[in-house]
Amino acid sequence: MLQIELMRWEQARAAASRIRYAVFVEEQGVPVEIELDEHDAECIHALAFDGGAALGTGRLLPDGHIGRMAVLREFRGRGVGSAILAKLIEAAARRGDREVLLSAQVHALAFYRAHGFSAEGEVYQDAGIPHQTMRRAL
Ligand SMILES: CC(C)(COP(=O)(O)OP(=O)(O)OC[C@H]1O[C@@H](n2cnc3c(N)ncnc32)[C@H](O)[C@@H]1OP(=O)(O)O)[C@@H](O)C(=O)NCCC(=O)NCCS
């Protein structure tokens, strides 16, 4: 059964780093020094578990940005990413944020639109991947 847990970086680090390395560095070719940044320690992290194994992750920054959304390739398309995103949006709303923002990879725009986000501004490159800003009011 799918469970999403919110935690601090110290608790999330081992599983979240493993998933993010597999998805962003190995699969998407993002340089590891870009994947790991100084923000993790100040974020709320979500981890998705199914029977004890961690399958996906995401994070919420203090400024309301959601990022590092990653689900292991073999578990995609089953609602894991949606459940992680919903949990992070809920956490932002609970602490009183008025909106959540994303720097979305353009291939995932439809995924985020389905969760109430709207794209704005120009498409730009980050780590060699096209991105667009998305926003959702809470
Ligand atoms: C984006 C990601 C986190 C979504 O996770 P997921 O577990 O596959 O998402 P879900 O199963 O909840 O998908 C929900 C819906 O979004 C759609 N969807 C998922 N990824 C999509 C994509 N890249 N492009 C378009 N639609 C997508 C699914 O088809 C599904 O639609 P449906 O409910 O109508 O069938 C996952 O695809 C992933 O890890 N991708 C690689 C890393 C990445 O690109 N992260 C995003 C950085 S902005």
Structural commentary:
The protein has a domain at 2-97: Gcn5-related N-acetyltransferase (GNAT) (Aminopeptidase). Helices cover 31% and strands 38% of the residues. It is built from 4 helices and 7 strands, in the order E-H-H-E-E-E-H-E-H-E-E. The protein has helices spanning 9-27, 32-35, 80-94, 109-113, and strands at 2-7, 44-50, 53-60, 65-71, 99-105, 118-126, 129-137. The protein has a 7-stranded mixed sheet, sandwiched between helices. It is globular, with a radius of gyration of 14 Å. Coenzyme A binds next to strand 4, helix 3, strand 5 and helix 4.
Characteristic terms for this protein:
about 140 residues; alpha+beta; Aminopeptidase; seven-stranded mixed beta sheet; binds coenzyme A
Question: What are the SSEs and their pairings?
Answer:
Blueprint: E1 2-7, H1 9-27, H2 32-35, E2 44-50, E3 53-60, E4 65-71, H3 80-94, E5 99-105, H4 109-113, E6 118-126, E7 129-137
Parallel strand pairs: 4-5
Antiparallel strand pairs: 1-2, 2-3, 3-4, 5-7, 6-7
Coenzyme A binds at residues 23, 69-71, 76-82, 104-105, 107-108, 110-111, 114.
Compact description:
The chain is α+β, with helices and mostly antiparallel strands.
